[in-house]
Amino acid sequence: MIGQQAAARVARGANVAWLWLRRMPNRLRVASLDMRDAAQRARAASAAPTPSERFEQLRGFYDRYNLLVETLCDSAQYGPTAKLEGEYASHRKWMLSNYPAIRKYVVAYLRFDSADTRQGLDLHGQSADAFEALFCASSLDEFLRADDGQMIERLQRTRESLIHYGDHLRSLVRRESGCA
């Protein structure tokens, strides 16, 4: 009886050891994937732009934003002339390719309004924030036809967002350079 119990315990122990050894390749694969993921996260964190780089990115964006605003205001006054249509198309193309990189930062300072979402939905079937509502129309003529009367307020909110983000970056740059 005692011999049978001992033999059963030894058999169970051997079975557990066999299962543990059999699962070892999977455990090694999982550990390898975990290490690879950790390395990718570390690379991504080190690739994040510094506050100085983000400030330069903001300055470039702000310059193009001002050109877009100027074009929109001129078109509201003079209509969608061929020259203004060309300028809008150029600014829109630039914004579509460059806004996503800065969006994650400026929306933190943006006051949202449901009119922006409606503007995006009406123009291209997707919700939009105040920045996107300024360039989501495929043409200046379409932008003016879909104008909801909120353009000035939208411009004020987007400019305010850029100013607050710029103030934040200036404080980070001062801290980064040790002048805080």
N-C termini distance: 80 Å
Please bin the fraction of helical residues.
Answer: over 70%
Q: How would you spell out the order of helices and strands?
A: HHHHHHHH
Number of strands: 0
How would the global form be characterised?
A: elongated
Strand coverage percent:
under 5%
Question: Which residues sit in consecutive blocks of at least 5 with pLDDT less than 50?
Answer: none
Number of helices in the DSSP assignment = 8
* Biggest sheet character: none
Output the structural class: mainly alpha
Rg result? 29 Å
The overall pLDDT average reads 87
List the SSEs and their pairings:
Blueprint: H1 2-22, H2 24-47, H3 51-78, H4 82-106, H5 114-124, H6 130-135, H7 140-145, H8 151-176
Give an overview in words:
α3 (51-78) runs antiparallel to α4 and α3 (51-78) runs antiparallel to α8. The mean pLDDT is 87. It is elongated and about 100 Å long. It has 8 helices and no strands. The protein is 82% helix and 0% strand.
Q: Quick summary of this structure?
A:
This protein is mainly α.
Question: Features of this protein?
Answer:
single chain, 180 residues, mainly alpha, 8 helices, 82% helix
